[in-house]
Specification:
Alpha-Beta Plaits, TIM Barrel, 2 domains, four-stranded antiparallel sheet
Length: 399
């Protein structure tokens, strides 16, 4: 029996003893496969995990350089510690071996833990999919170049040559955000517009690792903000409400000023999302941007909230219209423990949105916690009404 078959057999027939619970920890580290340094990092990280967890009821399976699966059979109270220790080892090694990646990698998104008492089939599907991809992931042709300032110039040149509509068609994407009201089907209320990194890599920045140069990547996102502000009217319907995830500094750009004037100084059809990390780094600037947008009739969302930030930051004091929490498989119990905090936010008039909802469990958990808006691939499948409803019809927004 080879390792893959052994792993599948363990998941299919996990040891369920009194006081012991079976889990699998899945790490999808593909974004580290794009450079020679990343390949060396992956080899060292797998060795470190193997050594660190030996004797702790865990076994590491290396499906490929980028896909690691660890079986865990331990007391339930200790399982969260294993997940935390894994993330700690990952962050330590990123900081020491790949400092350019530090802060640019969403550790919570690339690590997930699956409870085999509830989600055995999902674990099996994930392992089989990763095993099938393993041969492709390990190919040396995956090597990529570092992102440089000249690549930003290439994006700007392509925009000038293609124009709003064609550039948007190639490189911009949208995803609907839906509202939930008891007794009613989900309805799309707005669409989030964003630049597709996958499309840029496929058509324009072929062979470029966009995240291996953090400072240049940030400059690239500011450039893409400017393009989206220019192109948005060409790609959205006049009555459609749009959500734009932009950098705080972009609000003070000349392109935003032109965008305002083009919108007749009314931003009522726009929601602006700002990432929590950006807010922390540019707090005073955020306050000014928030006041400007809300003063023009627009709404403001705080994006990228993860469970560990909840209760640490008083989000209501930031006076947003919306807070977007990131869903991740397995964090349901952690979110449920923060029910009182979510209730307090909602009672203060803040709309709760759950993003990255890629499974039914996320939707059910968010609904149980009183979240009013949802976004993610699973929500895309659920939506049945093609026409967005006016945001004003949702009583929790636009206070």
């Amino acid at each position: 029996m080879n390792e893959i078959d052994e792993l599948v057999d363990w998941i299919s027939n996990p040891p369920i003893n009194r006081g012991m619970v079976p889990y699998v920890l899945v790490l999808n580290l593909e974004e580290f496969t794009r450079t020679k340094e990343g390949i060396e990092f992956l080899k060292a990280f797998a060795d470190r995990l193997d050594e660190y967890f030996t004797g702790r009821g865990c076994r590491l399976y290396r499906l490929s350089l980028a896909s690691l699966v660890m079986t865990v059979a331990d007391q339930e109270v200790l399982v969260s510690g294993i997940l935390s220790d894994t993330k700690l080892q990952l962050l330590r090694m990123i900081g020491r071996q790949l400092p350019d990646y530090f802060g640019a990698v969403d550790v919570n998104r690339i690590t997930q833990i699956v409870d085999l008492r509830r989600d055995r089939q999902r674990a099996l599907d994930t392992v089989r999919r990763l095993a099938a991809q393993a041969a492709n992931v390990d190919q040396v042709s995956h090597m990529m170049d570092m992102l440089l300032l000249e690549h930003i110039a290439k994006i700007e040149s392509a925009y000038r040559q293609l124009g709003d509509a064609r550039f948007a068609d190639l490189f911009l994407r949208s995803q609907q955000i839906a509202i939930y009201e008891e007794g009613k089907p989900l309805h799309p209320v707005m669409s989030e517009f964003f630049a597709s990194m996958a499309a840029l890599r496929q058509h324009l920045l072929v062979g470029v690792d966009m995240r291996h140069n953090k400072n240049v990547f940030n400059q690239m996102t500011v450039t893409l903000d400017r393009i989206i502000l220019k192109a948005i009217e060409a790609i959205k319907r006049p009555e459609q409400r749009a959500s734009l995830n932009i950098n705080i500094e972009s609000v003070f750009s000349s392109d935003f000023e032109v965008f305002e004037k083009r919108s007749l100084n009314s931003l009522r059809r726009f929601n602006f999302e700002f990432r929590m990390g950006d807010i922390m780094q540019n707090f005073n600037e955020f306050l000014a941007a928030r006041d400007l947008i809300q003063g023009r009739g627009g709404t403001v969302a705080i994006d990228g909230i993860i469970p560990s930030l909840i209760n640490v930051i008083d989000l209501a004091q930031l006076n947003p219209n919306m807070v977007k929490v990131f869903w991740q498989p397995g964090i349901g119990p952690e979110l449920l423990r923060r029910r009182a905090y979510f209730d307090k936010l909602r009672q203060s008039g803040v709309v709760l949105a759950l993003a990255r909802v890629d499974d039914e469990d996320g939707y059910i958990t968010g609904r149980d916690l009183g979240f009013g808006m949802f976004q993610g691939y699973h929500i895309d499948k659920m939506l049945s009404t093609p026409t967005p409803v006016p945001l004003s019809e949702y009583r929790g927004v636009g206070r």
